[in-house]
Amino acid sequence: MDGCRWLVVSAILTATTPGFAKGARLPRPQQAPRPQQAVETASSRSAQLVAQGVMALVSRDFAKAYASLSEAYVIDHRPDTLYQLGIVAYTEGQTVLSQDLLRRYLASAAQDGPSAQQRAEAERIVSQGHGQSGEILIQGESETLVQIDGRLVGILPLPLPILVATGSHTVLLQKGDSSHSVSVEVGSHRAYQIKPDSATNPPGLPTVSRLPTALLQVDQELYVRGVGTPKDTHAALVSQLEGSGLFVLSAPAHGQEDCKGDARCIVKLADQSYADYLLTVSGIVSDPALTGTVQVTLLDAVIGEVAAQRSLSCSPCTEAAVTESLAPQFSALVKESVMRGRGTLQLQTEPAGAMVRLGNRKLGITPLTVPLFAGDVALGLSRPGFQSQTVRKEVLAGQLAQVSVRLTAEESTPIIVRLHPERGPRPKWRAAVGIAGIGVGLGLLGLGASAISVSGQCVEPAEPPMAVCARLYQTTTAGAALVGIGSALTVSGALLLAWPGLRTMNRPVIPQKQSDSAGPWALIP
User: Fold this and answer.
1) What is the distance between the alpha carbons of residues 82 and 399, in angstroms, rounded to a whole number?
2) How does pLDDT run across 200-242, given as a tens digit for each residue?
3) Is the dihedral of CA 137, 139, 143, 145 positive or negative?
4) Is residue 216 within 8 Å of 238, Cβ to Cβ?
5) Rg (CA), the chain
6) SS3 assignment for 22-61
7) pTM of the complete model
8) Is 234 left (phi over 0), alpha (psi -120 to 50) or beta?
9) Could you please report the per-residue DSSP string of 450-467?
10) Residues 275 and 213: beta-carbon distance below 8 Å
């Protein structure tokens, strides 16, 4: 890995440093100074030191390279020298330090137009993960040298905060014969401010304070800090906020697209970005002729509630005018948010699984532990099959408030089910008798109909010469009787088959997996 890093750095230095192309040689130092030699300028002296630093870097003499380049940067604050210092740090394996130097190089060199190769390499290194790091915002007199852990990192004023690895660091501020040092314990994803304090003895000694951090959203647009661009969006507003004690973080590049304006998503994004707050500014317009009202809201990213807010009637409502008008109120807004007490609520229910609401916002399912603003809170509890309840509890700043609630089951109205009486199957004997009756009855009906049809006809054919029958059938009475009996048997058999079975008092079984919330059953026959 180190070998690959060194090959990349060597190629960059060879391609981007004047006088170090293949085959170039440094001029040999003069044996004795010439009396007629012109006075050395700061620019030429700085160029010589840069050349010495680059040669030392090529020789892998990192200490000499750093010393020469640092001296060159003090003499002439050229962005290219800052770039070479960043390459030295990157070659040494100090990635966070290198990213800090190179991102300030990109910000400082934006107007001067650095070479495409230098810009591409700086952007590649800066785009790598920062790891465990924090940022330090330093205020002080112009031309004050800033050293961290004995290493020069810049000269005030700085275009961007200093990016430093987590841990303990010593910051030295030096101007002329005056120097002051201060220790800073840097936490991950945290921001700190170092500035002179007039209340110290002697006055003007630097003091360290941790700054609350926030993502900035201006009219539904998340702020992304521009590095190496000609113009940083909302730069004046960000500068005013940071001067008021609120450090503005750069939102993730794809945060706006991922959330698509959803308020809850943006609050969650702020929490995931380790920001303390989400600052929203709404109502800004670009037309200077329009008037209106601007709303500034500072929302706690962890608790998810508004910590402080301000409204301002403006005319015009451009960003520049609003920034100037709200400048005196920014400090009060930040102070009000920070001073609000925060505690923790731990809530348990018996049985567990109750939904907890604070107003219209769902906090979660019990058992639940959530941070809240200090004060009296009213929490709504609900669970299917149990009565909804409201619990009130006072949350004290910096303390844990514990609440345990036993839920009361609902008094359900019995579900009355009216069951139709059930009947048993028909007896087998009845079915057999009915079928037999229908069969015999139909047979008798056939015989009776035949008897009626032949009644009055000759028993024997008439013989000539006489054409008169000697005997006739007299079966009308018998046929009618058969028809009557057959009909009776057929109807009786049909009735025996159609008549239902006897009623039974057996009741259906209640479903085994019936929900408890359905209440008791009452079966009425």
Assistant:
1) 48
2) 767 778 899 999 999 999 988 888 876 655 456 788 888 888 8
3) negative
4) yes
5) 49
6) CCCCCCCCCCCCCCCCCCCCHHHHHHHHHHHHHHHHHCCC
7) 0.69
8) left
9) HHHHHTTSBSS---TT--
10) yes
